[in-house]
Amino acid sequence: MIYEQRRYECFPGKLPALQVMMEKLALPTFEKYGMKLIGAWSAISGEQDGTLIYLLAFDSLDARMEKWEQFHKDEWWNEQKKLTHANNGPLVARQTTTFLKPAGYSPLK
Question: Which domains does the chain have, with CATH numbers?
Answer without folding.
Answer: 2-100 (3.30.70.100)
